[in-house]
Design a protein that fits this description.
191 residues, mainly beta, Lipocalin, 11-stranded antiparallel sheet, 2 helices, 50% strand, signal, YceI family protein, Lipid/polyisoprenoid-bd_YceI
């Protein structure tokens, strides 16, 4: 069974959504990529399939006194996908899925952050996968620790909106259209 994560990214993508925090948090410093994660869950024939992107970069800017001014940018190396097997990884970087040769990166750029209260936020932004750009909303929580700030969130994208899964893979009975993107970004806390 080919583990198609398809869209995940975005996560990128999504993930970038985490550009804000709470008033009790320290200002955000550099993202600690080794502690961060951009992952996804897709369904193949109704069975959940987990995957992740192993290479990405993230830039966050956040002032706890002004969470609305938070900014995030996440760029994902599409060839770094781990969809569970070498066969699946080879398939999803190909032309019918991510077409990583022509579109080597996917990216999320925030356009605004809205505080929801209780350490919860929602980031708006654009997600680009392949040659398609769509607006996304990603809810997330922020947790401040002694030396770091952690952002955790999740959102759903439709792979068809990004042209992911073409040809024989366009059938949603085999691989579901909806893909859940999960992210954890850990950033150093500025003093």
């Amino acid at each position: 069974m080919i583990r198609t994560t398809a869209v995940a990214l975005a996560s990128l993508i999504f993930a970038g959504a985490t550009a804000s925090g709470t008033a009790s948090a320290a200002e955000v410093g550099p993202v600690q990529i080794d502690q961060s994660r951009v992952a996804f869950v897709s369904k193949q024939m109704g069975v959940p399939i987990d995957g992740e992107f192993r290479k990405f970069s993230a830039q966050l800017s956040f002032d706890p006194a002004k969470p609305e001014a938070g900014r995030a940018r996440i760029d994902i190396d599409m060839a770094s996908i781990d969809a569970g097997s070498a066969e699946a990884n080879e398939e999803v970087v190909g032309k019918n899925w991510f077409n990583a040769r022509q579109f080597p990166t996917a990216g999320f750029v925030s356009t605004g952050v809205r505080p929801l209260g209780g350490g919860k936020f929602e980031v708006a932004g654009t997600l680009t996968i392949r040659d398609k750009t769509r607006e996304v909303l990603a809810p997330f929580t922020m947790t401040a620790q002694a030396a770091s700030v952690q952002f955790d969130g999740s959102f759903v994208i439709n792979r068809a909106d990004f042209g992911i899964g073409q040809g024989v893979w366009a059938d949603f009975d085999t691989v579901a259209n909806e893909v859940q993107i999960n992210f954890k970004l850990v950033a150093a806390a500025k003093k």
